Amino acid sequence: MVVVASTTVAVTAVAPPYGSHSCTEIRSWQLHLREGRGGACPERRGYVPFPDMMTIYTSGNFFPRAGEGINWTDSYGALASCTADPSCITFNNVGSTGTLGSVIYLAKGANTICTYIKRVFPEVHGYALRPFLEWFPEVDAVIVQEVSAEAAKATCDSHPTCSAWTSSGQYVLGPVVTDEFRVSNLRQALYLKQACPEKPGYVTHAGSALAGADGSGSVVSFDRLPSGSEAEEFCSQQDDCTAFSNDGSFTVGPVGNLTLIPGMCTYVKRSE
């Protein structure tokens, strides 16, 4: 792949080269997890959880070999070991750890597995942090190299088809795969745009517009400001404002039924 600064380049999606693992191997892994070792993904301080996703090592295995990481008897030993080791970037609830350079892919796979990756990069509002990872672009996605991470983020903020950017200054126009990732050797973070980022004090309704936005429904008062940010500011300052949408619309009084509109984000105030 060739990416020229501030120049768009169309790319074709490439499947990850781990197709040699048989269904029997994956079923064996799943069975191993279900035998009392799997579970939900509780938060671990300093780590980003990846439910039902598993690491694949340079050896092509799901478990680390010598030099790739350590196989502990439980997740607590793996957590403590990884936290104490600066070269370790990941562990899972089976007890495996992995170092930067030894883990090459993170892929959707076994049910009940929880993989954790160190949260050493800052969170960014409106984006989901994927530390140490790179995207798999979909067919015909376009990758652009900017002069800085700040420039990549600024473009992604304003471009409706931008789905992600990286701390190394790239952004992508078009969709990316969200259940398979390469592990980056650049010590970079990937930031996936959230269609409707969560907002404190509000219940998020993705793909929904306020009733009345299309002339239907019934609310006490329905109006629209020039932008979603202005509607959010208004609603946060007015106690009787009960909801707003990213198109600038807001309601005062009871919220009627929501209308399904792709791309819309509606936020309804939580009751006290």
Automatic annotation (TrEMBL):
This is Uncharacterized protein.
